[in-house]
Amino acid sequence: MRNRQTKAETGQPSTVKTPVVLSIPPYREKEKTDNDRLMNLQYKYLTGDKKALSDLYVLSCQVCTKFIMDQRRKKGFFLQDEDIEEKAHCAALYLITQYLIRPDFIRQSNITAYLFMRVLHELYYHTKIDEIVDFVDFSERQDPEQDDDTDDGEESAMDNE
């Protein structure tokens, strides 16, 4: 049997990476932009104010809506208001989810850039299941029982007997 030694015992450098502890970015006294407001809400949330997360969500939705409207103007495509709200919600919710599932998640400098990338993902990335859902439109589907009532006054051969 071989005698197993660790790298520390043999004098070799360890390949285990130590986790990087990120510091919370400082509170910004002057809120000039949406990014400053988002960074301050992040600061409040990370220092223990749980209500700041809901405020962060609301402001993120507003910022994402602005990005979507800007993309719509630049690219010339049409989205219904419900679709705009849904895509803004999904992009903002992704940011909020990161705070909830990853305790070490901190945006150091630019939250709006992160949201912009999520908006682009929501607008332009489509999976196969999205295409299937778009293809099936249940609003135009008729109920099978309604088909029996639509014989336009004609009697069938079975009814005459």
Oligomer: single chain
The coarse overall form would be extended
- C-alpha Rg (nearest Å): 28 Å
Estimate the mean pLDDT confidence: 81
Q: H/E series, N to C?
A: HHHHHHHH
How many beta-strand runs? 0
Q: Give helix % range.
A: 55-70%
Outline the low-pLDDT stretches.
none
Describe the 3D structure.
This protein is mainly α. The chain is built from 8 helices and no strands. The protein has helices spanning 7-10, 34-46, 51-75, 81-101, 111-124, 128-135, 144-148, 157-160. Helix 3 (51-75) packs across helix 4 (81-101) and helix 3 (51-75) crosses helix 5. It is extended and about 75 Å long. The termini are far apart. The mean pLDDT is 81.
Set down the secondary structure blueprint.
Layout: H1 7-10, H2 34-46, H3 51-75, H4 81-101, H5 111-124, H6 128-135, H7 144-148, H8 157-160
Helix pairs in contact: 2-3, 3-4, 3-5, 4-5
Brief synopsis:
This protein has 161 residues and is an all-alpha fold.
Which tags fit this structure?
161 residues, 8 helices, mainly alpha
